Amino acid sequence: MEKRVYFRSRTLPYLLLAPQVAVTLVFFFWPAAQALWQSMLEQDVFGMGAEFVWFDNFKVLLDSQEYRQSFHVTAIFSVLVAFFGLAISLLLAVFANRVIRAASTYKTLLIWPYAVAPAVAAVLWVFMFSPGMGILAVGLQRLGIGWNPLLNGQDALTLVIIAAVWKQVSYNFLFFLAGLQAIPRSLIEAAAIDGASPSRRFWNIVFPLLSPTTFFLLVINVIYAFFDTFAIIDAATQGGPGRDTSILVYKVYRDGFLGLDLGSSAAQSVILMGIVIALTVVQFRYIDRKVNY
């Protein structure tokens, strides 16, 4: 029989919700409102005064070639990080889900990178791709491939993409592995008896049943690429060389904390927040329709 809980006091439900509502208001809505207000101000570098300029900060940003370049870099970076992060982790989860010897050891080793701090992960890959001393950079040079992320913008962008993907693969791997283990083996065995090839079983049975997990990880990885990769870029390239790895979240930091242009930095944070909200809405509105729950 269905059990229901009735609150005898009318104020008790509101008291139970109050802590979560307070946290949401203080740590999300209030900072968002402050950012929106500051984006319409032109403030003195030393904080001695501010002038209300309406949407002038946004107009200057949209007319800036440097800001448009940051948009371009962020689009490439986020798409590649999300795609390769999901593809590699799904491949690893499929292999780890097989019944093999020492499977638990392999799974444990694949989870370890998630415990590494983003800045440490960036420094690790910087050393391996360092020209003249990095083992990977030296190997590429012996193959006749020139590699120098300190001078070449494409090499630097490739470096931060690899570091960001490597850092996120373990997180994706955990969810994909859990999703694979939740799929009934009887479905796959029945398809194998009917003569379906391994690739056909995967694309027609396994992958559709993984669609809720894939959709969830897609949203998480997009947000990760936009926000949580700040430490990787700061430790690896600091947005350089030039502005070739300066994604939107790092430009907010550089203009606001290093350039002390608080109005422009606040306007950039508002635009960035709007982009992420729009992408999330699009994902839930259109991509979610193709998810089989």
TrEMBL record:
It is a multi-pass membrane protein. This is sn-glycerol-3-phosphate transport system permease protein UgpA. InterPro entries: MetI-like, MetI-like_sf, UgpAE/MalFG_permease. One of its GO terms (biological process) is transmembrane transport. Pfam families: BPD_transp_1 (PF00528). Signal peptide: none annotated. Keywords: Cell inner membrane, Cell membrane, Membrane, Transmembrane, Transmembrane helix, Transport. NCBIfam families: PRK10561.1. Residues 71-283 form the ABC transmembrane type-1 domain. The complex is composed of two ATP-binding proteins (UgpC), two transmembrane proteins (UgpA and UgpE) and a solute-binding protein (UgpB). It is found in: Cell inner membrane; Cell membrane.
